[in-house]
Specification:
The chain is an all-alpha fold. The chain has a single domain, classed as Alpha Horseshoe (Serine Threonine Protein Phosphatase 5, Tetratricopeptide repeat), CATH 1.25.40.10. It is 78% helix and 0% strand. The protein contains 8 helices and no strands. Helix 5 runs antiparallel to helix 6 and helix 6 packs antiparallel against helix 7. The termini are far apart.
Length: 141
Protein backbone atom coordinates (compact mmCIF):
# COMPACT_ATOMS: atom_id res chain seq x y z
CA UNK A 1 0.00 0.00 0.00
CA UNK A 2 1.04 3.54 -0.69
CA UNK A 3 1.02 6.42 1.76
CA UNK A 4 -1.51 8.91 0.34
CA UNK A 5 -1.74 12.26 2.01
CA UNK A 6 -5.04 13.77 0.91
CA UNK A 7 -8.63 12.82 1.59
CA UNK A 8 -9.41 12.65 -2.12
CA UNK A 9 -6.53 10.22 -2.70
CA UNK A 10 -7.71 8.08 0.19
CA UNK A 11 -11.30 8.05 -1.04
CA UNK A 12 -10.14 7.04 -4.50
CA UNK A 13 -8.23 4.14 -2.93
CA UNK A 14 -11.25 3.17 -0.82
CA UNK A 15 -13.36 2.96 -3.98
CA UNK A 16 -10.69 0.97 -5.85
CA UNK A 17 -10.40 -1.53 -3.00
CA UNK A 18 -14.18 -1.73 -2.72
CA UNK A 19 -14.45 -2.61 -6.42
CA UNK A 20 -11.93 -5.42 -5.79
CA UNK A 21 -14.03 -6.58 -2.81
CA UNK A 22 -11.09 -5.89 -0.52
CA UNK A 23 -12.94 -4.68 2.55
CA UNK A 24 -9.94 -4.76 4.87
CA UNK A 25 -7.92 -2.36 2.72
CA UNK A 26 -10.95 -0.09 2.38
CA UNK A 27 -11.16 0.04 6.17
CA UNK A 28 -7.44 0.80 6.44
CA UNK A 29 -7.80 3.77 4.08
CA UNK A 30 -10.88 4.98 5.95
CA UNK A 31 -8.90 4.77 9.19
CA UNK A 32 -6.32 7.07 7.60
CA UNK A 33 -9.05 9.46 6.46
CA UNK A 34 -10.44 9.55 10.00
CA UNK A 35 -6.97 10.40 11.33
CA UNK A 36 -6.85 13.37 8.94
CA UNK A 37 -10.50 14.46 9.39
CA UNK A 38 -11.75 13.01 12.69
CA UNK A 39 -14.90 15.16 12.68
CA UNK A 40 -16.29 14.05 9.34
CA UNK A 41 -19.26 11.74 9.96
CA UNK A 42 -19.16 10.38 6.41
CA UNK A 43 -15.96 8.46 7.09
CA UNK A 44 -17.42 6.77 10.18
CA UNK A 45 -20.58 5.88 8.25
CA UNK A 46 -18.52 4.42 5.41
CA UNK A 47 -16.25 2.49 7.74
CA UNK A 48 -19.27 1.24 9.67
CA UNK A 49 -20.78 -0.06 6.46
CA UNK A 50 -17.62 -2.04 5.69
CA UNK A 51 -17.15 -3.22 9.27
CA UNK A 52 -20.78 -4.26 9.43
CA UNK A 53 -20.18 -6.99 6.90
CA UNK A 54 -18.34 -8.93 9.62
CA UNK A 55 -18.98 -7.26 12.96
CA UNK A 56 -22.19 -5.40 13.75
CA UNK A 57 -20.90 -4.19 17.12
CA UNK A 58 -17.98 -2.39 15.46
CA UNK A 59 -20.37 -0.92 12.91
CA UNK A 60 -22.61 0.35 15.72
CA UNK A 61 -19.59 2.10 17.28
CA UNK A 62 -18.89 3.88 13.99
CA UNK A 63 -22.51 4.90 13.47
CA UNK A 64 -22.68 6.15 17.05
CA UNK A 65 -19.58 8.29 16.46
CA UNK A 66 -21.13 9.63 13.26
CA UNK A 67 -24.27 10.57 15.22
CA UNK A 68 -22.15 12.36 17.84
CA UNK A 69 -20.60 14.42 15.05
CA UNK A 70 -23.79 14.90 13.03
CA UNK A 71 -26.83 14.43 15.33
CA UNK A 72 -29.35 14.70 12.49
CA UNK A 73 -27.80 12.07 10.24
CA UNK A 74 -30.82 10.01 9.25
CA UNK A 75 -28.48 7.65 7.42
CA UNK A 76 -26.36 6.94 10.53
CA UNK A 77 -29.45 6.30 12.67
CA UNK A 78 -30.95 4.02 10.03
CA UNK A 79 -27.76 2.02 9.57
CA UNK A 80 -27.24 1.74 13.32
CA UNK A 81 -30.83 0.52 13.58
CA UNK A 82 -30.13 -2.09 10.89
CA UNK A 83 -27.09 -3.35 12.81
CA UNK A 84 -29.02 -3.50 16.07
CA UNK A 85 -31.82 -5.36 14.30
CA UNK A 86 -29.33 -7.93 12.99
CA UNK A 87 -27.97 -8.41 16.52
CA UNK A 88 -31.48 -8.99 17.86
CA UNK A 89 -31.65 -5.65 19.69
CA UNK A 90 -35.09 -4.91 18.31
CA UNK A 91 -35.95 -2.18 20.80
CA UNK A 92 -32.67 -0.43 20.01
CA UNK A 93 -33.47 -0.74 16.31
CA UNK A 94 -36.94 0.71 16.88
CA UNK A 95 -35.43 3.63 18.79
CA UNK A 96 -33.01 4.39 15.94
CA UNK A 97 -35.64 3.99 13.24
CA UNK A 98 -37.93 6.28 15.25
CA UNK A 99 -35.20 8.93 15.39
CA UNK A 100 -34.71 8.55 11.62
CA UNK A 101 -38.43 9.07 11.13
CA UNK A 102 -38.40 12.17 13.36
CA UNK A 103 -35.66 13.64 11.17
CA UNK A 104 -37.10 12.50 7.84
CA UNK A 105 -40.79 11.61 8.27
CA UNK A 106 -41.66 11.16 4.59
CA UNK A 107 -39.56 8.09 3.82
CA UNK A 108 -41.73 4.99 3.58
CA UNK A 109 -38.83 2.56 3.93
CA UNK A 110 -38.08 3.87 7.44
CA UNK A 111 -41.57 2.89 8.57
CA UNK A 112 -41.13 -0.54 6.98
CA UNK A 113 -37.86 -1.11 8.83
CA UNK A 114 -39.46 -0.08 12.11
CA UNK A 115 -42.47 -2.30 11.40
CA UNK A 116 -40.15 -5.28 10.99
CA UNK A 117 -38.50 -4.66 14.35
CA UNK A 118 -41.86 -4.12 16.05
CA UNK A 119 -43.09 -7.40 14.65
CA UNK A 120 -40.04 -9.17 16.09
CA UNK A 121 -41.06 -7.86 19.53
CA UNK A 122 -44.64 -9.06 19.03
CA UNK A 123 -46.06 -5.57 18.51
CA UNK A 124 -48.18 -6.54 15.54
CA UNK A 125 -50.54 -3.59 16.02
CA UNK A 126 -47.64 -1.10 15.95
CA UNK A 127 -46.10 -2.91 12.99
CA UNK A 128 -49.38 -2.76 11.09
CA UNK A 129 -49.66 0.98 11.78
CA UNK A 130 -46.15 1.54 10.44
CA UNK A 131 -46.85 -0.60 7.36
CA UNK A 132 -50.01 1.40 6.65
CA UNK A 133 -48.10 4.66 7.05
CA UNK A 134 -45.43 3.38 4.63
CA UNK A 135 -48.09 2.40 2.09
CA UNK A 136 -49.75 5.80 2.42
CA UNK A 137 -46.42 7.56 1.82
CA UNK A 138 -45.69 5.41 -1.22
CA UNK A 139 -49.02 6.42 -2.74
CA UNK A 140 -48.50 10.12 -2.01
CA UNK A 141 -44.96 10.31 -3.31
Amino acid sequence: MTEPKTISELMKLVMEECKKDNINNSIIYLNEAIEIEPNDARFYISRGTFRGTENYKDAIEDYTKAIEIEPNSVFAYRLRGDSKHKLGDYQGAIDDYTKSIEIYPNKAYLYNYRASAKRKLGDDEGADEDSKKADKLKNIL
